[in-house]
Specification:
The chain is an alpha/beta fold. It is 37% helix and 16% strand. The chain has two domains: 233 residues, Rossmann fold; 74 residues, no CATH class. The strands form two sheets. Strands 1-2-4-3-5-6-7-8 form an eight-stranded mixed sheet, with helices on both faces. Helix 4 links the parallel strand 5 and strand 6. The protein is globular, with a radius of gyration of 19 Å.
Length: 322
């Protein structure tokens, strides 16, 4: 499909990408009522799926970003809005992100799609949904795009996907996050990632992780070399990134998919914008607003958030609903 001209025109404050990125985290105040389903995995682990139902035949499976959860403010914002529009929400907490440590030395990574398949099968087992859409943010967006491009025999009920602020090239994004302007974000991620890894090491000493190397990790490359790659069987960080970057899977996507990456997203390198992969694609719609930050896309009018990205997702769903 042709590159989409975006309608996102934010207020002046939101033309600052860092303010747009941080706004919901700092100022969004709301909550949502979930019912939790704990799903047992084939490797004797579990994932937590938090469902917010309004009795619809359409559900959105939301995938959070790195170190997020169903309680992330962007997840609450979009699912509460979709509930108000008579659409059910289901937020998948990746392993170890639902408030309880999972049962394995490993948890999740930026290309682990098997738990998405598990969540979709659970939703189908409820025998109430005719339409399921996947919605991924940041890391969750990379997982969503990979899932859409690699899954064979996808259920007919899965009508499409939307992915927002996606590091389509994981290595490029990791390098971008090393820049001085992103140092605060990187340090925040490193803090929680290292804490979890050290807890895993205490719980599973047989995992043979190196405590000193973990503690010295300052960048995603350091951490993925020390933790992600060995736990999931990759040679190193680069092997993990190359294998799981969603950019390569976009040509194989067969169902309607919306990808929104802001041009001012400081988390994304130039290689995270798949212009050539989407230029003549018949199913993937690629939208690149000038502004938006990372998982931002806020816009206020007299103090009221106009929920641009939430409404954009709804528009896409309604266009592709059966």
């Amino acid at each position: 499909m042709p590159h989409i001209k975006s309608t996102y025109k934010p207020a002046i404050l939101f033309r600052n990408n860092h303010f747009n990125t941080a706004y919901k985290t700092l100022f969004f105040v709301d909550n949502i009522q979930y019912s939790r389903a704990q799903i047992v995995t084939v490797d004797n682990d579990f994932v937590d799926l938090d469902i917010s139902s309004v009795g619809s035949e359409t559900a959105v499976l939301a995938l959070h970003g790195l170190e997020g959860s169903s309680q992330s403010k962007y997840i609450i914002s979009v699912l509460k809005y979709l509930n108000s529009q008579n659409i059910d929400g289901a937020a998948l907490n990746f392993r170890g992100c639902g408030g309880e440590d999972n049962n394995k030395p490993y948890a999740y990574h930026s290309g682990k799609t098997d738990d998405v398949d598990l969540a979709i099968n659970y939703l189908l087992s409820l025998n109430k949904y005719r339409n399921i859409f996947i919605l991924g943010y940041s890391m969750g967006g990379n997982i969503a795009l990979k899932y859409m491009g690699t899954t064979k025999n996808m259920p007919d009920e899965v009508k499409g996907a939307a992915a927002i602020s996606v590091p389509c090239d994981l290595g490029g994004s990791a390098i971008a996050l090393e820049s001085l302007s992103n140092i605060l974000y990187q340090n925040m991620f490193m803090k929680t990632l290292k804490e979890k890894a050290l807890q895993k090491l205490n719980k599973f000493p047989e995992a043979n992780l190196n405590k000193e190397v973990i503690e010295r990790s300052k960048t995603f490359k350091d951490f993925d070399n020390a933790v992600t790659a060995p736990l999931f069987g990759y040679k190193n960080a680069e092997d993990y990134w190359v294998t799981n970057s969603s950019k390569q899977f976009i040509p194989d996507i067969q169902k309607p998919t919306l990808l929104i990456n802001a041009l001012d997203d400081s988390f994304l390198s130039e290689s995270c914008f798949p212009f050539s992969e989407t230029k003549n694609h018949q199913k993937v719609y690629f939208e690149t607003p000038k502004y938006g930050g990372h998982v931002g896309f806020n816009s206020t009018l007299f103090g009221k958030d106009l929920l641009w990205s939430e409404k954009r997702v709804l528009e896409f769903i309604n266009h592709n609903i059966s």
